[in-house]
Amino acid sequence: MDGDGASSTGATPSEEMNGTGNLMDFLDEPFPDVGTYEDFHTIDWLREKSRDTDRHRKITTKSKESYWELIKSLLDAWSGWVVMLLIGMLTGTLAGVIDLAVDWMTDLKEGVCLSALYYSREQCCWTSNETTFEDRDKCPQWQKWAELMTGHSEGAGAYVLNYFLYVLWALLFSFLAVSLVRVFAPYACGSGIPEIKTILSGFIIRGYLGKWTLLIKTVTLVLAVSSGLSLGKEGPLVHVACCCGNLFCSLFSKYSKNEGKRREVLSAAAAAGVSVAFGAPIGGVLFSLEEVSYYFPLKTLWRSFFAALVAAFTLRAINPFGNSRLVLFYVEYHTPWYMAELVPFILLGVFGGLWGALFIRGNIAWCRRRKTTLLGKYPVLEVIVITGITAVLAFPNPYTRRSTSELISELFNDCGALESSQLCDYVNNPNMSRPVDDIPDRPAGPGVYSALWQLALALIFKIVITIFTFGMKIPSGLFIPSMAVGAIAGRIVGIAVEQMAYHHHDWIIFKNWCRPGADCVTPGLYAMVGAAACLGGVTRMTVSLVVIMFELTGGLEYIVPLMAAAVTSKWVADAFGKEGIYESHIQLNGYPYLDVRDEFTHRTLATDVMRPRRSEPPLAVLTQDSTTVEDVETLIKDTDYNGFPVVVSRESERLIGFVQRRELTVAIKTARQKQDGVVSSSVVYFTEDNPQVAEACDPQPLKLRRILNLSPFTVTDHTPMETVVDIFRKLGLRQCLVTRSGRLLGIITKKDVLRHMAQMMNQDPESIMFN
After folding, report:
1. What's the rounded mean pLDDT across residues 280-287?
2. What are the transmembrane regions (predicted)?
3. CB-based contact 54:743 (threshold 8 Å)
4. Is 187 helix (H, G, I), strand (E, B) or coil?
């Protein structure tokens, strides 16, 4: 089936035509632009696959002719790995640069390093010789703005000045980000994952992965994260990586001319993006497989693995965090977990699922409001207002003032003897003589209680503000804010369990595993489990989530708690709605995305869905040997269909094949330029044998057999829609013709299928906007 379809799409120049080599076979030369698609249209996976098979066959045949052709065929075989190498290196480099820039600009809101302006606070204090261990956060080279301007570092005046400048810098960064996005690359906003998913399912969005989008997204991502808004850089890094993939695809004709092959590269690029975002190469491959890819052959799995490896290796070479780790949150816990702790872990899973469901409902409602009201007309104002509110509310609380990544890092941390954080302000037992890394559970001191209050406020703040932040016209990821919500909740639960175990170690649940003076409960582990639960609740990831989390934190023996939390959060969130945040945004934007996970259980038939319906005009068709060039041009001008079925005659309506609109347009245009005698009254032939010119005065006929697809996909009118949906999903079709005993009855497009599914789920079928 594939071969037939392809040999009629202009991919093979001389196999099918056995007519004499006269003028009408000018199409033996493959003409330009055939096989490319319009913007906002779906690709035909089957056709792309068979075109690639034809190309491969040609190369293999030629490689036996000479050494030069053999070398060319080897280069062609290696080009896939070369592209992966380039994607990995560029993605890793960009991620390293983004990390360093975000670090510096986040600290710039609070102060500046006098010894070197381009140092972040941490780098500044590392290089200083005057930093003591007790006051390791204070060093003379690093000065806050108030101290630099007025000479005073303490007091109300200094606080107000620091506050004012913090808000000012935040507003400046976010204003720059939204302005750059608006002026240069409107596609650089948002997280990009919903669109990447849609593109990988075979949709074309021109410019979404372009050079400008890559440049602007990289720059504005740094500005947006530095402005202190409740957003992360992880989702947008997947978009950046896919832009790199698209950039390198254009260097190799194998990928630039075949949309199906290009999508294999983009799947691997998405894996590289997650690999550098979290320092989790294997998690990246699984993320691409579980969350974003539509078509993921085994070959793509190996290539994704290689791209993710190269990207992680490049990032490690840059070493942006200065700790020889790929991530900011690396932790080492010293105590195992106990069976009784599964109860709080599962409760955190329930919390994650509830927060995920709440977030999706709230965010989608807000985004829909943005689309339908005046709010959508003022994106710059919206970003400025949200940034202003975020900065004003975030500054007084030390946990919201710092960058979200640092906050998560502190919440994950285990309290060792060297920690100076407020969260580690426990009351020490004076006659304790134990090894440093195994400190027993201790009663909480005043610092812990004040930290708990601040964390509770931070939790409410993050839950509310993230709903309004995600989806604004700036690059915004969702992974980090979701993890922050979960980590705060987890740490609070962890401290509560720890104090219960300390004060009530004779209770039956603690008796078996928590002796007095032992280190039983690790609050940081609860933060980690909470983070996984909330991220799972929002995105509905499971396998890739758990792998990302243990790669991220290095906590290998905590896989079971993470799995328990991830599964629970998915179950709870699924009870409120099957779609994750990305699927919800795809629905909101009306993209034609057939989700593999959606089940179609209604008992409708192809005849209920096909066009034309009873009240509509008949199907626009071409006949095999009685349509003139003028008729075809009128049909193309008066309709906006993607293609036309070709029948023997209007009376018999026996189906012969299907011809794409774009190829028809290009073929007629090329024929008028290159072939003498083709005029408006020339008859267009789709037949096998050469048309005979009856009289000398008759215009020259035009033979377009070459562009006719002789094996269009057909179903009968009584095929259940369940089967039709499956065919569309698994073969990636654009359209499918409906016949009865060889007679053409109608056509079903991907858009018709999606609209029918929406109607069956009591949703608005008009929300599916593209085809």
Report:
1. 94
2. 78-102, 163-185, 205-225, 265-289, 301-318, 338-360, 380-399, 451-471, 478-497, 525-550
3. no
4. helix
Contact (Cβ atoms closer than 8 angstroms) between residue 440 and residue 155: no
Burial class (CB in 10 A: 0-12, 13-18, 19+), 139: buried
Position 9 scores a pLDDT of: 36
Amino acid identity of residue 349, one-letter, is G
Rounded to whole angstroms, how far apart are CA atoms 324 and 316?
A: 7
How many other β-carbons are positioned within 10 Å of the β-carbon of residue 149? 13
Helices (H) and strands (E) in the chain, counts: 29, 11
Closest residue by Cα to residue 329 from 528, 102, 533:
528
Structure token pair of residue 536:
């799972």
Pairing label, strands 702-703, 683-685? parallel
Question: What is the tens place of the pLDDT at every residue in 633-660?
Answer: 999 999 888 899 999 998 989 999 999 9
Residue tagged 């490896």 (tokens): 309
| Backbone conformation region of residue 472, classed left if phi is above 0, alpha if psi is from -120 to 50, else beta | beta
Identify the pLDDT of residue 15: 37
Q: How much is the pLDDT for 640?
A: 86
476 three-class SS: coil
Q: How far apart are CA 246 and CA 250, in angstroms?
A: 7
pLDDT band per the 50, 70, 90 thresholds, residue 137: low
Write out the two tokens for 85: 């190498």
Residues facing 738 on adjacent strands: 715, 746
Please say if the pLDDT value at position 488 is more than 50: yes
Choose among 757, 742, 724: nearest CA to 653: 742
607 token code pair: 């005849």
Rounded distance between C-alpha atoms, residue 644 and residue 406, angstroms = 58
- Phi–psi pair at 716, nearest 5 degrees: -85, 165
Q: What is the number of alpha carbons within 13 Å of residue 481 lying toward its C-beta? A: 28
Question: What span, in angstroms and rounded, lies between the C-alpha atoms of 67 and 27?
Answer: 30
Nearest to 99 by CA among 342, 276, 311: 276
DSSP 8-state symbol, 707: G
- State residue 23's pLDDT score: 37
Beta carbons within 8 Å of 584's beta carbon, 6+ residues apart: 360, 363, 364, 577
Model-level pTM? 0.89
Under DSSP, the state recorded for 402 is S
- Interhelix angle 581-589/342-372, nearest 10 degrees: 10
User: Which two structure tokens, joined as six digits, stand for 128?
Assistant: 């200083």
Under 8 Å between Cβ of 415 and 522:
no
Structural contact between residues 572 and 357, judged by C-beta atoms closer than 8 angstroms: yes
Question: SS3 sequence, 604-669?
Answer: CEHHHHCECCCCCCCCCCEECCCEEHHHHHHHHHHCCCCEEEEECCCCCCEEEEEEEHHHHHHHHH
Other C-beta atoms closer than 10 Å to the C-beta of 131 total 18
Whether 484 shows a pLDDT value over 60: the answer reads: yes
Q: Give the chain's end-to-end CA distance (angstroms, integer).
A: 24
User: What are 303-323's pLDDT values in tens digits?
Assistant: 999 999 999 999 999 988 777
Return the pLDDT at 27.
42
Segment 48-52 mean pLDDT = 90
The residue written with tokens 């909101």 in the block is 588
Cβ–Cβ under 8 Å, residues 555 and 524:
no
CA distances from 688 to 28, 50, 490, 643, 674 (A): 14, 21, 71, 20, 22
pLDDT of residue 446: 84
For the stretch 553-556, contacts whose Cβ atoms lie closer than 8 Å and that sit 24 or more positions apart, written own/partner, are 553/327, 553/329, 553/330, 553/331, 553/412, 553/528, 554/330, 554/331, 554/332, 555/331, 555/333, 555/525, 555/528
Peptide bond before residue 612 is cis, with ω within 30 degrees of 0? yes
Average pLDDT value over all residues in the chain: 87
Q: Determine the residue type at 157.
A: G
Nearest Cα residue to 439 out of 341, 509, 522: 522
> What is the distance between the alpha carbons of residues 218 and 249, in angstroms, rounded to a whole number?
19
